[in-house]
């Protein structure tokens, strides 16, 4: 059974990695996509907003699908769709083809994100120790590689399909082969009934985590969308130096997630989440008052170290809160990933235009600090059988997606 879990963990980690590569290749080549299809500046926000909206639809749909089929099957077939849709974006010729490809990407990525984190939560429960941050660390590593490949494509003026095709040819068959070893978790009907999976009580219990997820992604989208502009326009850096903060943010995110599980095992999830929120808030504060570019980059570095722990621990907390209904909890929680992504960039832009970009950085700082109010939701939940730990659940490790 240990070998089953190890293979399941490795195969799921590769899925996180492949998704990180694919998503980075899409978002970092948006200017090239805009040029290829002749998308106007006025129309571009509609295309960009459609992806997270449809991803939210995909996540909600996945909640219903996993009632009939295991999450491993959803992941097995949604990942190839994401990769092929990415290739479609690069190879299309008309605006209609772009729209269809982005729609397929959005729907599939919602199903992919939800099912990946469902499997991650159930594996962590089976391991009986924190491993969730390691999956998101591998995602960050994939994002760094994808962004690097995108830079190569832009530097050598490669056509989009030329940049995307080799990646898809490598990742798609590897993901399909690896999907043989996914491990599904088991459910527990009596716990589902007790927690009120579909009722008001369940949403009230899940709401604090939904807010934390939303606030974390508002912070993340602030960095990804505004760090370069902020450094150049507000702090007076060169154009070349303005590209550095997001790269530093990605690297520190990877480092923080790589060591974060050790922190959770040593100090507990509540302490790690509180520390992450405080570090992220300090990071936003440093960015807001920075006198120059180098101090601003220090702030973005702190943001990577702080924000990186919030999202993985939010998924893990949902699994602990609803041990018999973790798939549904993760799917609902995942929707707020896209809500935060949709809200973050326009919010900072509107505040920056109406007030100041320095002042705008204080808003995500305050939202991240609200996480401290909800930190207790990340504590291990006592079950109805007594004690402060979840009871052993043999069903969680009893079946793999290939029948093991």
Characterization of this structure:
- This protein is mainly alpha-helical and 404 residues long.
- The protein is 76% helix and 1% strand.
- The protein contains 16 helices and two strands.
- The protein has helices spanning 2-27, 30-37, 44-65, 71-91, 95-127, 132-155, 160-178, 189-195, 200-234, 244-267, 269-289, 293-307, 310-321, 326-354, 357-360, 362-370; strands at 183-184, 399-400.
- A two-stranded antiparallel ribbon has the order 1-2.
- α4 packs antiparallel against α7 (160-178), α9 (200-234) runs parallel beside α14 and α9 (200-234) runs antiparallel to α16 (362-370).
- The termini are close together.
Could you name the key traits of this structure?
404 residues; two-stranded antiparallel ribbon; 1% strand; transmembrane; MFS_dom; MFS transporter; membrane; MFS
Radius of gyration: 21 Å
* Model regions low in confidence, pLDDT < 50 over at least 5 residues: 187-201, 382-404
Main sheet? Answer: 2 strands, antiparallel
Count of individual helical segments: 16
Mean pLDDT: 87
The portion of residues assigned to helices is over 70%
Helical/strand content category: mainly alpha
Strand order of the largest sheet: 1-2
- Beta-strand portion reads under 5%
- Overall 3D form: globular
Distance between the termini: 9 Å
Order of helices and strands: HHHHHHHEHHHHHHHHHE
Number of DSSP strands?
Answer: 2
Biased composition (Basic and acidic residues): 386-396
Transmembrane segments: 12-30, 42-62, 74-92, 131-152, 158-177, 198-218, 271-294, 300-322, 329-349, 355-375
Organism: Streptomyces plumbiresistens
Domain Major facilitator superfamily (MFS) profile: 205-404
């Amino acid at each position: 059974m240990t070998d089953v879990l190890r293979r399941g963990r490795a195969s799921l980690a590769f899925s996180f990695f492949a998704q990180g590569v694919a998503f980075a290749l899409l978002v970092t080549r948006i200017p090239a996509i805009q040029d290829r299809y002749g998308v106007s500046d006025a129309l571009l926000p509609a295309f960009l907003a459609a992806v997270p909206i449809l991803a939210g639809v995909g996540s909600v749909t996945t909640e219903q699908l996993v009632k009939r089929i295991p999450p491993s099957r959803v992941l097995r077939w949604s990942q190839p769709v994401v990769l092929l849709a990415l290739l479609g974006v690069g190879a299309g010729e008309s605006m209609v083809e772009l729209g269809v490809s982005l729609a397929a990407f959005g729907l599939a990525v919602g199903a992919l994100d939800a099912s990946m984190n469902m499997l991650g939560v159930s594996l962590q429960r089976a391991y009986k120790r924190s491993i969730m941050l390691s999956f998101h660390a591998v995602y960050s590593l994939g994002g760094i590689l994808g962004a690097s490949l995108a830079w190569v494509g832009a530097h050598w003026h490669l056509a989009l399909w030329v940049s995307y095709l080799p990646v898809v040819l490598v990742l798609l068959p590897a993901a399909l082969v690896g999907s043989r070893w996914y491990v599904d978790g088991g459910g527990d009907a009596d716990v589902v009934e007790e927690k009120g999976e579909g009722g008001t009580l369940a949403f009230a219990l899940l709401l604090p985590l939904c807010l934390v997820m939303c606030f974390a992604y508002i912070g993340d989208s602030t960095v990804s969308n505004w760090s370069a502009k902020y450094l150049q326009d507000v702090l007076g850096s060169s154009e070349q130096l303005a590209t550095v903060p997001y790269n530093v943010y990605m690297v520190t995110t990877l480092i923080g997630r790589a060591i974060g599980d050790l922190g959770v095992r040593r100090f507990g999830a509540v302490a790690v989440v509180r520390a992450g929120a405080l570090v992220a808030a300090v990071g936003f504060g440093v960015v807001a008052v920075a006198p120059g570019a180098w101090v601003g980059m220090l702030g973005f570095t702190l943001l990577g170290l702080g924000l990186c722990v919030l999202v993985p621990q939010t998924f893990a907390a949902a699994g602990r809160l609803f041990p018999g209904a973790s798939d549904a909890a993760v799917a609902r929680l995942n929707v707020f990933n896209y809500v935060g992504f949709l809200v973050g960039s326009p919010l900072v832009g509107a505040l920056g235009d109406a007030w100041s970009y320095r002042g705008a950085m204080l808003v995500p700082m305050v939202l991240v600090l609200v996480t401290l109010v909800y930190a207790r939701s990340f504590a291990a939940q006592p079950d109805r059988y007594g004690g402060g730990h979840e009871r052993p659940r043999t069903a969680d490790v009893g079946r793999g997606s290939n029948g093991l």
